[in-house]
Amino acid sequence: MLGYWLPATSVVSARARAYYGVEATIGSGVALTFDDGPHPEGTPAVLEALGDTVATFFLVGEQVERRPELVARIAAAGHEIGVHCDRHRNLLRIGRRGVHDDLERATGLIADAAGREPALYRPPYGILNAAALDEARARGWRTLLWSRWGKDWRRRATAESIVRSIGPLHPGDVVLLHDADYYSAAESWRRTVAAVPRVVESLRRSRLEARLP
Q1: Which of 151, 161, 1, 163 is CA-nearest to residue 91?
Q2: What positions carry a catalytic annotation?
Q3: H-helix or E-strand spanning residue 136
Q4: Beta strands in 51-167 (DSSP E)
C-alpha cells in the first residue's frame, strides 16, 4: 500500500500553493485550526476563547455522533468545518476499503450535524495514503495540513510552551491545535484554551488576520 508521511517541515500551507494536489486560499492571512473534536468541555471553551476570531474545526465522526449540537454551534458561530476521520487511526494501517468507509461515515455525520457538506480534509496525524488522496479528490475536498503546531497534545504542554512552539506567525501560516483530549494527554485541551487568547493577540500585534481556508 502506497503511503505518504508529511512531517511538520513539509506540511501544506498557503505558502506551498500546490502539493499532492493541495491548495489553501488564505492569502496574507493565517488559518487557526483545531482537530479531534467536538468535545463537551474543550470545544465550547475554545469557541469562547476565540471570540470573533474565525477558525476551522476538523471533526471526528465518532465524536460528532455523540454531540451533534456542538457541531451546529461551531457552524452557527461562523467557523469552518472539515473532515478529520470517523475513527482516529493511522491511515497507513488501513486498506482502501477501510479508508472509504471511514470517510463516508464521517462525512455523513458531519454534514447532518453542520447542515452543510464539508469541503476540507485533514487526515489523522497528518498522514496520507493513496486511498485518502483519491477519496479527497473524488469528493472535491481540499486537503489542509499545517505549517505551525502548538504540540498541545503532550502531557507536559503548557500555555507558554504552546505559544513558543507555534512561534512567530507569518502570512500564509496554518496553525494546528486541538480542542479535545480523546487521543492525547488527559485535559490537554485546557492548556490549549489558555493559549488561544495569546495566539490571537500575537496575530493582532503582527497585524495579521485570521482567515478561513
Answers
A1: 1
A2: 35, 178
A3: helix 130-139
A4: 56-60, 80-85, 120-121, 127-129, 142-143, 148-149
Q: CB within 8 A of 33, min separation 6: which ones?
A: 55, 56, 57, 58, 82, 122, 144, 146, 174, 175, 176, 177, 213
Report the 10 Å Cβ neighbour count for 55: 25
pLDDT by 10s per residue, the chain, length 213 = 333 344 333 334 333 333 333 345 677 899 999 999 999 999 999 999 999 999 999 999 999 999 999 999 999 999 999 999 999 999 999 999 999 999 999 999 999 999 999 999 999 999 999 999 999 999 999 999 999 999 999 999 999 999 999 999 999 999 999 999 999 999 999 999 999 999 999 999 999 999 999
Which residues are within 8 A (CB) of 115 and not within 5 positions of it... i.e. 6 or more apart?
A: 72, 75
Q: Which domains does the chain have, with CATH numbers?
A: 3-205 (3.20.20.370)
pTM of the entire predicted model: 0.90
Measure Cα distances from 84 to 38, 147, 155, 205 in Å. Answer: 11, 17, 22, 31
Type of residue found at 173: D
Cβ distance 198 to 161 under 8 Å?
no
